[in-house]
Amino acid sequence: MPLKLFCCDECIPERQNHVYIKEEGEDTTQYLPLSNIETIPGSLSERGCSYCGAKLVIGGVIKDCIQMIHGPVGCAYDTWHTKRYPSDNDNFQLKYVWSSDTKEKHIVFGAEKQLKKAIKEAFKEFPKIKRMFVYTTCTTALIGDDPKAVCREVEEELGDVDIFVVECPGFAGVSQSKGHHELNIGWMRDKIGTLEPEIKSEYTINVIGDYNIQGDTYVLQRYFDKMGIQVIAHFTGNVTYDQLRCMHRAKLNVVNCARSAGYIANELKRVYDIPRMDVDTWGFDYIKVALRKIGAFFGLEDKAEEVIADEVAKYEGKLNWYKERLKGKKVCIWTGGPRLWHWTKALEDDLGMEVVAMSSKFGHQEDFEKVIARGRVGTIYIDDGNELEFFEVLDNIHADIIFTGPRVGDLVKKLHIPYINGHAYHNGPYMGFEGAVNMARDMYNGIYSPMWSLAGKDPRVVQEL
C-alpha cells in the first residue's frame, strides 16, 4: 500500500509522505515515511523544541547540578516538573529551577551581565553545589550572547566550580532530537576524560540512554551489581556531573535509548575505542537477551543466568496473570522515537497484544526502519502526527489503550479511551522484569477501570441510580 493521506489532511497533502500502513510482502526498501524534517505549516505538531531535548530529556536528569536556563523564565518553567526521574540524593534536581530571567531591556542591551549575576547568585544560595549546566534559549541566542565567556569568568572568580554550557536554542533543529545531539557531542568534547574514576571491578560499563524514569536506573543497577559489573556512569539517570566526566574508562557502552544518546556511544568508540552494544531493557524477554549479551561480552554467562532465573521466578507468574487478560487488546504507541521499536514486540510477544498504530515525534529514518521491521502488517506508522490525525486513527481502529504524553493523553481521555503516560509512566519503573509487570498492570488497570462505564453518563442520572 502506498503512503496514506488522511481525510483530515486533504488541505495539506504533503502529510501523505509521513504516514504509512504496512502490507504483506512490503518492507522499508519500498516505503518509508519521511521523518526528522521540518513540520509542514498547517500541521499542529506535538514536537518539543531543541532546547527542550537537551534540558528536559538529558541534562536536567543529573542529580547534583544547578540547571541554569539563560532566557525568559517561561523556558525554565516549561522544562521543570514534567518528567519524573528521581535520584538518591532526595531528588535535588526535581525540586528547583533556575533562570537568568531575561526581559525586554536585556534583549536590547544584552543579557550577559544578567547571566553572570544569576550564576553567582545560584552558587551562593546553594553553597554545597559546585557544578552547573547553562542552556541558551531562542532569545539569548538571537541577540548573540556569549555564555561560554561568561562561565569562564565565573569559574576563574569562584575557583571551585565547574560549568558546562549547552548552546542549543529552541530553533536550532526541527525537533528536540537536535538538543539530544548537541548535548551528547558537547559533553564528549568538553568534559569526558577530565576526571579519573575509582575502578572497583575488571568489568566496567556505561549505561547510555537510561534516564531513571520512576526508578528504571535502580532496576538495572541491581542486575549489574549482582553480576559484579561496575557502572561507571548512567547517561544520565541518577548520575553525578563528575561520574559523567569519567565515561572514558568503561570497557563497554550499553546503549538503550539510541536516538537520544547513541551519538555519545559512537564518539566514545571513535575516540577511546570502547565497543557499543545496543540492547532493549523494556520487555520481559528482551531484558533476558540484554543480560545474556552483556554477560557473554565479559565471560559472565553464569552470573547473567543467575539473575534471570531469580527474576523470572519472582515475576513470570504475575506477568502471565496479566497476559491472560490483555491478550488481543489493541494498543497505540504515540511517543518520541525509539520506544516505538522497543515496545511493539515486547507488548505483542510478552502479552499477546496488538500494536495497531505508532507515531513518532522526533524519530529519524533508521528509527522507522526498525519499527516497521518489528511491527505488524496493517499497523499505521506516523511521523510527527497531529491531533486531527490521531482522532481519525481512533475512529478507524477503536484502540483499547494509548501510550502517549499528557498533551495527547488528555485529548484521548475525552474520547473515553484510557492512556498511559509513555514519557514519564504512571506507576513505574517499566524497565526490567518487574518493569514489564508494572507496565502490564497499568494497562490492565486502565482498560478494565469501571470509570469508563460511567464516563459517558450524565452525572445527575448516575446519582439517582
Could you explain how this protein is built, in words?
- The chain has 465 residues and is of the alpha/beta class.
- Among the domains are: 50-173, Nitrogenase molybdenum iron protein domain (Rossmann fold), CATH 3.40.50.1980; 204-304, Rossmann fold.
- It has helices spanning 50-58, 73-78, 92-95, 104-109, 112-125, 138-142, 147-158, 177-190, 216-227, 241-245, 258-272, 284-298, 301-326, 339-351, 365-374, 387-397, 406-414, 432-447, 451-455, 459-464, and strands at 19-21, 66-70, 98-99, 131-136, 162-166, 204-210, 230-236, 252-255, 276-278, 330-335, 354-360, 380-383, 401-404, 419-421.
- The strands form three sheets. A six-stranded mixed sheet has the order 1-12-11-10-13-14, sandwiched between helices.
- Helix 5 (112-125) packs parallel to helix 7 and helix 8 (177-190) packs parallel to helix 11 (258-272).
- The chain is globular and about 65 Å long.
- The mean pLDDT is 95.
Write out key terms for the chains shown.
465 residues, alpha/beta, Rossmann fold, 6-stranded mixed beta sheet, 20 helices, globular, nitrogen fixation, vanadium ion binding, metal-binding
Helix and strand composition category: alpha/beta
Note the total helix count. 20
Number of strands: 14
Look up the CATH topology of the domain at 50-173.
Rossmann fold
Strand arrangement, major sheet: 1-12-11-10-13-14
**In the CATH hierarchy, what is the superfamily of the domain at 50-173?**
Nitrogenase molybdenum iron protein domain
CATH class of the domain at 50-173: Alpha Beta
Percent in helix: 40-55%
| Second rung of CATH, namely the architecture of the domain at 50-173 | 3-Layer(aba) Sandwich
Q: How would you describe the oligomerization state of the chains in this entry? A: single chain
Shape: globular
The radius of gyration over CA amounts to: 23 Å
Q: Quick one: biggest sheet?
A: 6 strands, mixed
